[in-house]
Amino acid sequence: MCAIVGIYGNDNAARLASIALFAMQHRGQEATGISSSCDGKIYTKKDRGLVSEVFTDEALQYLKGNMAIGHNRYSTAGGDSILDAQPVYAKYKLGEISIVHNGNLINKDEVRQDLIDKGAIFQTGMDTENLIHLIAKNTKDRLRDRIKEALNRTIGAYCFIVQSRSKQFVIRDRYGIRPLSLGKLKSGGYIVASETCAFDLVGAEFIRDVIPGEMLIFDEDKAEPESIQLFEPEFRPCAFEYVYFARPDSVIDGKNVYVTRENMGKALALNDKDKNIKVDMVIPVPDSGVPAALGYAAQSGIPFEYGIIRNHYVGRTFIEPTQEMRDLKVRMKLSPMKSLIEGKSLLVIDDSIVRGTTSKRIVKILKEAGAKEVHFRVASPEIKFPCYYGIDTPHKEELISNNMSKDEVCKYIEADSLEYLSVEDLVNAIGNDRNYALESFNGDYFVKA
């Protein structure tokens, strides 16, 4: 769920990269980094913390050049060491290289052990470093050929941007699991970013999505990026991008995220139509539950109210690395509107239930504030299976719906009723014109090592 960005052919490359990363801060808050290239040298600045904290004017002045790549970290592999922040930089036979990666490589351990057996020395715990070693150990004369052969040993969900001293190589896996889009900067040059919300902030015009299995090559000798189709596309975009990850103002692979979430809420309302549940208002769990709650209210005719106020100076709870931190942030982040909800029956909509602890605490704070009833609705299906393609749910025991039935979850979170969106309704809400990566909901692990 990391964010990546590449800027090519603009004298303010690093600054624009930092602005794009700021727009995509929701995709990772552990660390951030940028590498720029100037006069045959790569400059890198990375550190723990938020984009606004790391990229001061002094840091951006250091990052010289008209090309830059950047990364916001949300860990699915590796630890919390600063060494595990990206970009990953190295010197090798052809010069200097820097890489950013969004996704998760499912054969990382096997490839890493093979490289270690052949003498490689790893500096980080990240799967991204595998690609550096595969490129460095290759004997081809051109970087593009080394990248191609390295990707033949790379299995999983990935969007890579590889930066040399004068070029950028952008690669999306054949399934297109994680999003990646190409834009044209109004101030000159190109941008590639995980989400289109970054384009709005830097002043870029959307051109198209990077095709699954495609490699784009940005070269100062060519006016437009060169496109090479490395793998035959087997398009399976991640449904969870629409449920939770992406910002609502982004367009992911042609689908407006806000509209898809609104559709999810409408589907929930249609499913509740004959259940004869009497509620006074529809309340979202802010912020990612808002579009679905608006959709539910519009479909059902039940008033929409902001019954929970969010403190926006607290980060996203789902992507916190420990349960203790998630619990603390829920308490800090969400405050009920007691005067509004006291004595009322509420229909509360959230985007998902992963571990259940956040939902339980939300129900508790609403009832402590005087809510008569809390009916919980979830704008996604039950999450029963861990995802190995970039979501931080590595163990089945962490997933409440893997261990409990719907009625048991309802009892655990102490709600008066609980309903989920079906997989079919989720697909219809996003658009049933394509297949989606739904492994968290149905256990279909279509990418195999």
From TrEMBL:
<feature type="binding site">
    <location>
        <position position="288"/>
    </location>
    <ligand>
        <name>Mg(2+)</name>
    </ligand>
</feature>
<feature type="binding site">
    <location>
        <position position="350"/>
    </location>
    <ligand>
        <name>Mg(2+)</name>
    </ligand>
</feature>
<dbReference type="InterPro" id="IPR005854">
    <property type="entry name" value="PurF"/>
</dbReference>
<comment type="similarity">
    <text>In the C-terminal section; belongs to the purine/pyrimidine phosphoribosyltransferase family.</text>
</comment>
<comment type="function">
    <text>Catalyzes the formation of phosphoribosylamine from phosphoribosylpyrophosphate (PRPP) and glutamine.</text>
</comment>
<feature type="binding site">
    <location>
        <position position="351"/>
    </location>
    <ligand>
        <name>Mg(2+)</name>
    </ligand>
</feature>
<dbReference type="Pfam" id="PF00156">
    <property type="entry name" value="Pribosyltran"/>
</dbReference>
<dbReference type="GO" id="GO:0009113">
    <property type="term" value="P:purine nucleobase biosynthetic process"/>
</dbReference>
<protein>
    <recommendedName>
        <fullName>Amidophosphoribosyltransferase</fullName>
        <ecNumber>2.4.2.14</ecNumber>
    </recommendedName>
</protein>
<dbReference type="GO" id="GO:0006189">
    <property type="term" value="P:'de novo' IMP biosynthetic process"/>
</dbReference>
<feature type="active site" description="Nucleophile">
    <location>
        <position position="2"/>
    </location>
</feature>
<dbReference type="InterPro" id="IPR017932">
    <property type="entry name" value="GATase_2_dom"/>
</dbReference>
<keyword id="KW-0808">Transferase</keyword>
<keyword id="KW-0328">Glycosyltransferase</keyword>
<dbReference type="GO" id="GO:0004044">
    <property type="term" value="F:amidophosphoribosyltransferase activity"/>
</dbReference>
<dbReference type="GO" id="GO:0000287">
    <property type="term" value="F:magnesium ion binding"/>
</dbReference>
<dbReference type="InterPro" id="IPR029057">
    <property type="entry name" value="PRTase-like"/>
</dbReference>
<keyword id="KW-0479">Metal-binding</keyword>
<comment type="pathway">
    <text>Purine metabolism; IMP biosynthesis via de novo pathway; N(1)-(5-phospho-D-ribosyl)glycinamide from 5-phospho-alpha-D-ribose 1-diphosphate: step 1/2.</text>
</comment>
<dbReference type="InterPro" id="IPR000836">
    <property type="entry name" value="PRTase_dom"/>
</dbReference>
<dbReference type="InterPro" id="IPR035584">
    <property type="entry name" value="PurF_N"/>
</dbReference>
<keyword id="KW-0460">Magnesium</keyword>
<keyword id="KW-0315">Glutamine amidotransferase</keyword>
<dbReference type="Pfam" id="PF13537">
    <property type="entry name" value="GATase_7"/>
</dbReference>
<dbReference type="InterPro" id="IPR029055">
    <property type="entry name" value="Ntn_hydrolases_N"/>
</dbReference>
<feature type="domain" description="Glutamine amidotransferase type-2">
    <location>
        <begin position="2"/>
        <end position="221"/>
    </location>
</feature>
<keyword id="KW-0658">Purine biosynthesis</keyword>
